[in-house]
Amino acid sequence: MKKNAKQELGQKGEELAAQHLAQKGYRIIRRNWHFGHKELDLIARQGNTLVVVEVRTRTSNYWEEPKESIRRKKQKFIVQAADEYIQRYKLDCDVRFDIISIVLQPGLPPEIEHIEDAFYPIG
Q1: Which of 18, 24, 26, 69 is most exposed, with minimal Cβ within 10 Å?
Q2: Each residue of 77-89: pLDDT tens digit?
C-alpha cells in the first residue's frame, strides 16, 4: 500500500521529534502505540517520568500553528490511550503530556517547538 503525502509528512515529523527528544536525553520507548482507534505517537522516558508526546507536522503555519490543531477531544483520546498503556504495562510513574510541533517548509530548516506539560487529563 502506497503512503500518501500526509502520511509521509507525519512520519518525517515523528522521526524528527524522536531525534529531538533523544538529543535532549529522553529515551524513546514506543512509537505509534495503538489502543483501538486511538494512537500515541511517541512514548518516552525522562528519568522516572513517562512522557506521552503528540507530534503535529505541517508544511506551513499560515492558518494555525500545528500545536493548535490538538483540540480537547484529541487530548481526551491521548489521555485514554495513555491510561490503557500504563495499566497494561503496570507502570507506577509520573506521566506528562507534551506536544512537539514541527513546520517543514521546502528549502528551510525544520521549525521544532517542544511544549512540555502541554495539557493535563480532564476530569
Answers
A1: 24
A2: 999 999 999 999 9
Domain count, the chain: 1
Instruction: Check which CATH number belongs to the domain holding 22 and give it.
Output: 3.40.1350.10
**Residue in this structure with the C-alpha cell 521546502, named with its chain if needed:** 106
Instruction: pLDDT band for 63, please (50, 70, 90 cuts).
Output: low
pLDDT tens, position by position, 33-43: 999 989 999 99
Residue 47 lies in a domain: yes
- Provide the strand spans (E) within the chain: 27-35, 38-46, 49-58, 94-103, 111-115
Q: How many residues does the chain have?
A: 123
Interstrand relation of 49-58 and 38-46 (parallel, antiparallel or unpaired): antiparallel
